[in-house]
Target: 3-hydroxyacyl-CoA dehydrogenase NAD-binding domain-containing protein
Amino acid sequence: MSTAPATHGPVVTTRQGRVALILADNPPVNALAQPVREGLLRAVQEAAADPAVDALAIACEGRTFFAGAEIREFGKPPVPPGLGEVLDAIEACPKPVVAAIHGTALGGGFELALACHARIADAKAAVGLPEVKLGIIPGAGGTQRVPRLAGPVAALEMIASGRHVRAEEARRLGLIDAVAESDLRAEAVELARSLVGRPPRRTGELPVPAFDPAAFDAAAAAVAAKARSQVSPIRAIEAVRLTAGGAGIREGLAAERAIFRELVGSDQAKALRYAFFSEREVQRVPHLQGVAPRQVDVVGVIGAGTMGAGIAVALLDAGLRVVVTETSIEAVGAGWDRISGLYGRAMKSGRIDQAKRDERLSRLSVTDDFAELAACDLVIEAAFEDMAVKQEIFGRLGSVARPGATLATNTSYLDVDAIGRASGRPEDVIGLHFFSPANIMRLVEVVEGAASAKDAVATGVALAKRMGKLPVTCGVCDGFVGNRILATWRQQTDFALEDGALPQEVDAALERYGFAMGPFAVADLAGLDIGWARRKRLAPTRDPGRRYGGTVADRLCAMGRFGQKTGAGYYRYVDGKRQVDPEVTRLVEDVSAELGRERRPFDPNAMVRHVRAAMVNEGAKILAEGVVPRALDIDMVLLHGYGFPAWRGGPMFEADAIGLATILADMRELHALSGPGWEPAPLLVELAEKGGTFAGYSRTPG
Ligand code: 3HC
Model:
């Protein structure tokens, strides 16, 4: 006997024999918005009460199982039913309920699956509790039910990292019961049928499996160390510890909910929600809307150094055919080794297998014949960072590349317009600024030259997305968005050394602020020689009226201390371990004396305020110049390429949150200490005086 489907808003129930198949459809990702929660609750209640139904299966239409709570509802008054109420109804249902997972079951979506009595997932599916990345903890039982299935140690790792767990691993951990072989929904219905007549296995009623308390404490300590000042992972430990300690499900759920409620309104959660939506918004470039990118199948890379090799790997990983050119047969061999070496490392770490490596390398050719670039739809030049070198290459590329091919330079500082002119076809030329290591780092600055055709820029954006990267489009200026801001705030840390600080004090202060690594430790890792060469190059044109700040770095380089690779830089390295070096302390103090700067007791808070003000001030100039149209563009560059703590949202977001009048006061203080060149940016002054914000700013065209 067939019955008509029952519809409750976005939720429809059909009958498969005596199994009710409940299907939700809320594009694009089936977020558990209020109408979905209400529809699910009614569908479950009806099926539970229907004598013609023996079991239930819950599945989703579209590209994924529920991707979690509707994030846009956070911070607004809750409209019932709450997710907890829906999940309680599912878990309490006297008939077996099976979750059929495809795509990604995340956050509240996975919590819903955990409240079901069994879970089956598509082989390609993944599950996860990414709430900590939104500054919250799971709020619908994740911290209580995952430990009951996978044990508290695995649960803590999963919840504190927010990582996606693939179906097969989830099965091994006990988080799902089966991986579907071919037809997920049919197999879910079959599983539900097979459970009829048995008492439902309610996750909330299961005992926590035996575990090693010392392993839990070690995992908790590792989470706390990694979290630094981010609150949500620490609070997640608290919630999981409660279950581990034997709390009942009701007590655990209430405690989890209380932490969730407390965190959801916190500044960190607000900043992380902003970061989440901005990460998506930044890819919608206002003036490129509706511009179709050019077709790209084959990509050329000029230069197989560290950067070129990384870019080639990222392109191969994205399924493209790649032609890499080098200048000699020896360099071709070294380039091939570098690229296959990167795959060797990926294999060692288990990221790819031999078959994948072979397939990817089969799409690569490395050649010393520049003319082979004629076959490419887009060419990325990753040669030495020198204008004359790049102009010479683009001169040749302009005639070799086929008409309509897009020509990109991976410069990090140089003028893309001047490089474009050298090609004779500047409309085809853009910048694609990758970050090292290019096969890992997500950010790409897509640089639009004054003459770049819109579809060439759109091609750069589309290619970066295809490579799984985050493209941020910007105009031409020295250092573009990221390096320009970096250069500014790094000068403040250099000044701090001259005024009384030591490298380890500056690093510790900025790590407390949230950077993964302090700037001097980063400098040692990257190598001090590149900056030294640049400072020497710029020396003849440096304004003598401006404070310099590079003396300590220059002295270190003159001593051959180029950082970690030479065993010494701002620190010394013993067996690869970073140590404070008394010789550097002496050197820093000597430099202060020579420059006639009084060394005052280091005030970490003042330095952090100055670093932030310097970033924001430069950001204000970048906005006013129209290098990017929105403050969120700047924030996304800093978050994804420069280790700025995501839970602060970005410097521009944080400045708005603190209040621009305060930032302006910090900037004035900084100006007094740092002298000419450090005047507050007119836009900062204007917005601060009017009570405006960067988020509300939009530049008048022209
Ligand atoms: N709420 C609201 N909107 C969401 C959303 C959510 N949970 N997840 C995604 N979206 C929106 C995105 O903003 C985007 O909107 P746009 O098209 O207007 O920009 C659209 O859905 C598509 O998202 P993506 O561009 O990210 O699509 P992808 O296919 O690349 O990725 C995804 C899909 C993996 C599901 C990814 O969107 C994602 O990771 N989403 C967030 C998942 C998450 O954090 N869930 C936990 C929420 S908190 C929670 O559940 C609390 C609970 O414990 C009580």
Remarks:
- The chain has three domains: 6-264, 296-474, 482-602.
- Residues 604-624 form the longest helix (21 residues).
